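Incident review: delayed structure delivery

Summary: a single-chain prediction request sat in the queue longer than the usual turnaround. Root cause was a stuck worker, restarted by the on-call engineer. No data loss occurred. The affected request and its eventual output are reproduced below so the record is complete for anyone auditing the incident later.

Affected input:
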Amino acid sequence: MKKFGLLVLGITAGIVALANLGSLLGLGVSALIVFAGMHFYLKSESTFLKIFWASVGILGLISAVVNVPGFFGILAIVGVWYVVKKWNNESVSFSKPVVKSDDPFVNFEKQWNELSK
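Output delivered after worker restart:
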């Protein structure tokens, strides 16, 4: 029954993500416009250019707000990612993974820090 629920959730999230591809593209273009506006605003020195690039950034923010379905598409993509992880019995964690190394110097430094506490 758990696999059936994951299957239904995955199919639904996939359909929602595909239905919102245009909005996702519009959201990406809006993000690029906002980034360009901020970048050139910080680089410009004249007041006219600062006003121009600030208005470009504000227009990019407004167009990002208009693309609300794009945010639903992002949530659907996260839902598909969650279903794939759960389907493969992998843990879903948003913390940084602990990487263990076989390098003797790394282990020595870790043990030295533990001893010097």
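Verification: The longest helix spans residues 21-43.
Action items: add queue-age alerting; document worker restart procedure.
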